[in-house]
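Renewal narrative, Specific Aim 1. Our central claim is that a sequence can be written position by position from structural information alone. The example that follows is taken directly from our test logs and has not been curated for this report. It begins with the structure tokens describing the chain, in the order in which they were read.
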């Protein structure tokens, strides 16, 4: 089939990750991050009790963390200082009491931290499961144009790596940032209460921290987007190379394909490596700033301690608080990288969910289908510009067979696709039983029209599953369909309809063609669309296929993209297409008397009776 006839084909291209929203990613504006989070909340709100449980532990964790440096101050300035002077410390705060309270504080802090982690992981993975299902359902609901302009690899990336990028944010990110902010504010507040001058000296590095975090945040955002983009390119190219592995081998293109894939991998590696450099640089700079802050504190606080203005215990407590202060600051900085990756992933995921290229459907779902088909002045173009069909009008009565004939690229397969409503024409109407197909309920239309495809997908699962396709058919009905499709010998060879396909049990090309016929016979639709090409199968299988097709056509309305002269002769109506236009219509004898294109095609038929 030609590209014109089947729609745009997507060859492996190392420079392309897919069309649509991936090609021109939107630039995020200020405030859009919160909009993304609010939109994501719809997938997490059902399990918000786990979020509240995680938030409940924040005050306990913060309080327990703040208590520990203060207890060290009390121990140094109280029992330890008194012991050095040979005195007994006044009050109830003995070393044993302080150590016991310190132990309780440590256990409380880390115990509630573990509870919070469990709660947030539960919330996160359930929300990710819903989001992944939403993406999957959305993609399956799109029309033919959607899949014409996107690679399988780029779509797969949305439901795998992009969704997984959100996992760390939900587990350690948003609530973790809130906890870090609470810790920072609480530590600074305690430091102010203990000594305002020491706190002011410690905060001299605050402007430097703001500048550092802001710089690294922008860089991490930039390279997070690059990582997502290069990952989608690599995945898409890998999937296409696997799908076309035999063609690559037959044409000796292995090394070229390997080199191109290596180039894509290096693009991903370079983006990830640069991101890691900035991530590691952020950690290193923050550690350096923390050391600088402690040095300033020792210089200034040590001088005041020598003057007797502050106690040694207070100075030690301040050093502890500074170290604790930079833990959430450093973690907050680290979470910036994680959140940047998550926002980048959310942009791409919601960018996909915002694409709506579904074909319309209505509520019409009759119990019985007559099988009357009509095309009324139908125009169609895959790319929206170059017309593949131009004003085509056809009528097929119930139980009649329409044969579509014409040179390659004339639009035969496109007519078949429009009948099944995989695409929607911009002009004209396609009707079944007098009702436009866009007014039919999608499931009702699928039950009414069955398609025998050339490229048959063999799903992993049993032979029964491959015929039933989730319709809940009885075993007897499936077995009868396989028998009528001339696959009885295959069923015996495999050991019954429960035999698993795949893992060395794959069907041959001809047997997959017969499997497609079995699916139609089991579903028993009123209308059948059939592409009768048999060039890729042997003569014995072709005979079986012809017998099976005769059973499919019996008593049903059929639209056949015809290649065999014997099938064309028996058709009630033959439509001859050329360059998307209907140029001849009639039965075999009428068209032969006309002496036009059909007569030329018949005259040029090969020895086996296939039109060329």
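The sequence written for that structure reads:
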């Amino acid at each position: 089939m030609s590209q014109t006839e089947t729609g745009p084909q997507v060859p492996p291209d190392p420079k392309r990750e897919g069309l649509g929203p991936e090609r021109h990613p939107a630039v995020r504006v200020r405030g859009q991050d919160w909009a993304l989070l609010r939109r994501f909340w719809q997938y997490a709100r059902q399990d918000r009790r786990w979020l509240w449980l995680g938030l409940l532990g924040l005050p306990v964790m913060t309080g327990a963390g703040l208590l520990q440096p203060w207890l060290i101050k009390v121990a140094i300035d109280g029992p330890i200082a008194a012991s050095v002077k040979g005195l007994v410390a006044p009050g109830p705060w003995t070393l044993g009491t302080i150590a016991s309270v310190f132990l309780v504080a440590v256990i409380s802090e880390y115990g509630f931290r573990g509870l919070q982690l469990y709660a947030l992981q539960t919330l996160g993975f359930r929300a990710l499961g819903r989001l992944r299902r939403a993406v999957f359902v959305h993609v399956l609901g799109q029309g033919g144009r959607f899949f014409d302009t996107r690679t399988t690899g780029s779509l797969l990336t949305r439901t795998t790596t992009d969704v997984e990028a959100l996992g760390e944010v939900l587990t350690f990110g948003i609530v973790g940032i809130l906890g870090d902010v609470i810790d920072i504010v609480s530590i600074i507040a305690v430091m102010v209460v203990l000594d305002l001058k020491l706190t002011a000296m410690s905060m001299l590095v605050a402007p430097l921290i703001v500048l550092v975090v802001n710089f690294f945040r922008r860089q991490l955002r930039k390279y997070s987007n690059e990582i997502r983009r290069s990952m989608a390119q690599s995945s898409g190219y890998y999937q296409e190379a696997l799908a076309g592995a035999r063609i690559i081998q037959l044409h000796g293109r292995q090394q070229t394909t390997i080199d191109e894939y290596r180039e894509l991998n290096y693009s991903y590696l370079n983006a990830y490596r640069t991101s890691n450099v900035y991530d590691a640089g952020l950690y290193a700079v923050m550690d350096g700033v923390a050391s600088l802050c402690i040095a300033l504190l020792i210089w200034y606080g040590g001088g005041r301690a020598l003057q007797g203005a502050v106690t040694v215990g207070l100075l030690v407590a301040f050093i502890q608080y500074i170290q604790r202060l930079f833990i959430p600051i450093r973690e907050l900085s680290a979470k910036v990288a994680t959140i940047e990756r998550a926002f980048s992933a959310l942009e791409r995921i919601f960018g996909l969910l915002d694409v709506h290229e579904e074909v319309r459907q209505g509520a019409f779902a009759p119990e019985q289908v007559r099988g009357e088909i009509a095309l009324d002045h139908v125009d169609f173009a895959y790319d929206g510009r170059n017309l593949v069909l131009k004003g085509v009008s056809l009528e097929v009565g119930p139980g009649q067979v329409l044969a579509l004939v014409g040179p390659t690229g004339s639009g035969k397969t496109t007519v078949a696709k429009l009948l099944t409503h995989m695409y929607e024409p911009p002009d004209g109407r396609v009707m079944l039983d007098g009702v436009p197909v866009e007014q039919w309920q999608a499931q009702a239309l699928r039950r009414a029209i069955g398609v025998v495809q050339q490229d048959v997908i063999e799903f992993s699962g049993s032979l029964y599953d491959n015929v039933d396709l989730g319709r809940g058919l009885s075993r007897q009905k499936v077995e009868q369909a396989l028998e009528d499709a001339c696959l009885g010998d295959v069923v015996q060879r495999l050991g019954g309809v429960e035999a698993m396909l795949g893992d060395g049990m794959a069907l041959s090309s001809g047997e997959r063609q017969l499997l497609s016929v079995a699916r139609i016979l089991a579903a028993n639709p009123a209308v059948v669309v059939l592409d009768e090409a048999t060039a890729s199968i042997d003569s014995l299988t072709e005979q079986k296929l012809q017998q099976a097709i005769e059973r499919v056509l019996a008593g049903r309305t059929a639209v056949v993209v015809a290649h065999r002269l014997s099938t064309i002769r028996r058709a009630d109506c033959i439509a001859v297409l050329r360059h998307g236009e209907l140029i001849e219509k009639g039965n075999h004898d009428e068209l032969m008397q006309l002496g036009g294109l059909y007569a030329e095609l018949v005259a040029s038929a090969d020895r086996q009776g296939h039109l060329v």
